[in-house]
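A note from the maintainers: we've had questions about how concatenated examples are separated. There is no special marker in the raw files; a new sequence line simply starts the next protein. For clarity in this README we add a label.
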Amino acid sequence: MKKLIVAALLVVGLSTFAQVENQEKEGKEPMEKMSPGERAEKALKRMTKELKLTDAQQKQLKVIIAEQEAKRADVNFKPNKEDRLAINEKISKILTPEQNSTWDKIQEERKEKMKEKMKEKREERKNKKEEKAEKTEDK
C-alpha cells in the first residue's frame, strides 16, 4: 500500500514539475496575469526585435502601445474594427516602408494563426457535442 501511495505522489510531482518547466521554456506568461504596462513592454520588445526599430521609433510606439493597453485594461472596453484600423494607421506612419511590409506580413500570419485556432476550437466543440450525443443514445 505504501509503495502505491509513493508511486502516485511521484507521478503527480513529476507531472507538476514538467508543466512548470514547460511554461518556463516557452517564456510565456498568461496575458491576464500581466499588467497593462508589462503587456505594453512585451509588445514593444517583440516589435523591436521583429522590425528592428530605432530608438526614436521605439519611443513613439511606446506611447501608442501604452495608450492601447490602458484602454484594454478597462473592463468595458470592446475593441472594434475602427480602433484596430486607427492603431495600425498610427503605427504605419512611424515605420519605414520596409518595416511596414514586414509588419503587414506579421499581421497576416497572426490572422491566419487565429483562424486556425478558431477552426480547431470549433472542431473540438463539435466533437464534444457528438460524443455527448452518442453517450446519451447509448443509455
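[label: protein 2]
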Amino acid sequence: MAKIGVLLSGAASKGAYEYGFLKAIGEFFEKDEIKCVSSASIGMLAAQTFGIGKPEEFARIWKSINPKKHGRLFLTYGGPGPIRDEICKVFSPDTKLFFEHYVAVWNFTKSKVEYIPFHELSYEQTQQYIRGAIAIPILVKGEIINGDRILDGAFVDNIPAYPLMEKDLDYILCIYFDNHKYFFENEAFDSKILKFYDFPNDKRLETLVFTPDSFDEMAKYGYEYTLKVLNEVFKTDDKAEILAAIKRNNDLQQADYKPRLTVDVVLNKINVMTRKYAKRMSNWEKTD
C-alpha cells in the first residue's frame, strides 16, 4: 500500500480545480493510503471538507456566493461578513479528519509562517484557525489567537511543501497554478512529487473574479485531468517505475524551470508583505 501526501496551493477562485483534483484522488486511492495533506488558503477549505468526508460542502459554499450581494471578486470569501461564518459552520465538534492536515498561516505578530496541525486541534481552535487561514490582509485584521495576529498563509507560502518534507511518504500529489516548473527543496524530495499545473492560462485578474457558474466546468477539468495523469503514472506497483513515470509527466509540462526553497520563499514574502502593509497593520494594532 502506497503512502501518499497531498499538497494544495492557495488558488482563490481556482479552488474549483482543487475540488476536482481531490475528487479524483479520493476515487483512485484508498483512504488508508492518504497519509498527510498540506495546504494554504482556499486549499485548506478543499482539504478540510474532503478530509471529513463532506467535499460537497465545498461546492455548496462556493455556489452560495451571490456576486450581486457579495461582489464578483473571490476576495470576498476571506473578507468580513457571512462567507467565513458559513465556512466555519461545516465543521462540528464531532468531525474528524482521516489524514494529518497542516495549514500554512501567517503569524504577523511573530513575523513568520506557521504550519498548523489541524488534525490535532480542538473544535474551538479549528474554528479560530479556519478564520485566520483565510483572512486576507487587505480586507480584514486577521484572527487573534493566543495573542498573535493570524492571517492567510498563502501570502507568504502559497505552496506549503515544508510539512511534508520529513514525512515518510512514497509519493506527493501537488497542485498549483503558477506557470513554473518548480524544483522543490532537493532532488530526493522533488523526485517523488507528481506535479499538476497544466491548467488553462487565465489572466491573473481572472483568478480573483468569481462566478458560481464556473465551478462545475473547473471542477470537471480538475477531475478529468487528475484522473488521466494518475492512470498514466500508477499503472504498476513497482516504485522505481512509478518514480520514472512521475519524472516523465513532470518533464512534459510546458513551463519555465524554477528552483523553490521554502526558507527563501518565506523570508522574501514576509519582507515584501511587511513593507507593503506596514502602515495598514500599524493602524490595526492601534485600533485593537
